[in-house]
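Example record

The entry below shows one chain as it appears in the dataset: sequence first, then structure tokens.
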Amino acid sequence: MAMHFDITDFRLFINIAETSSLTRGSERSFLSVPATSNRIKNLEENLGVRLLERSPQGVTLTNAGKTYLQHARVILSQLEMLTGDLQQYTDGLKGQLRLQANTTAITEYLPPVVGEYLISHPDVHIDMRERLSDDIVRAVREGSTDLGIVSGSVVTDGLQSVPLVSSRLMVIAPLDHPILLRGDVFFKETLQYAFVSLLEGSAINVFLSRAAAALHLPLTIRVQVASSDAIFRMVEAGAGIAIVPQASYDRLKGRQGIGACQLLDPWAVRTFQLCSQDFDGLSTFAREFADALIERYRTV
């Protein structure tokens, strides 16, 4: 029996796998949950195998699902490369640089480098995506991104990597909040209070949720917002406490009514690394971007 494959199904399945949730996978794919369920049902019937196991805790991949996921990523990566290569003939671009990074790198460290680079490279397009560090490492290994910026204790074996800047996570709170009376604190001590956070699915949100789960304690999020600036505004207004990178705090700490203390957990100090399969094997424009990042942020 002939099997039929659909790019939308590939993207949808990847989003479901990365979030372990039909609901969040649907949101990422801009589909309704019923439409997603119908697509997965039709896909499994077409392939003749079950791809997902459903439970109240979410979804997990079957062995067939893991195989489908691996090939879906490779196929989409090849299609993106094809699109990028052909794009230069339609709009004058010479190339597309694929970059994945975590929340902090995108909001605090990449903007000045990206801005200068695009001015000096008007014929290059940057496809930049926010991901968790573990997902970024996998994407670099699979070749679905040219460069990745990761942080923390993520394992980069088999890749080339260059250490960049280090940053500590900070706790910010209204000046009269009791957590500020403690001095510097461990993450566990913060979990008795309500948080202001970036939107669900953001890299920092997922990272902190996993850290709380490792302690077998809930992370109580009262408000979710879309930017670091909005986090500071909400904290200043008394909506809760927040954990932010020191770079964000240094940039926005001029606000009145906000105090800060450091997180003492070892993982709270994170060194950012720039990763590639092979820096020498990059296109000229991708290598020039990597060199610009290294020149600006390399500290060792």
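Notes for this example: The mean pLDDT is 89. The two ends are 57 Å apart (CA to CA).
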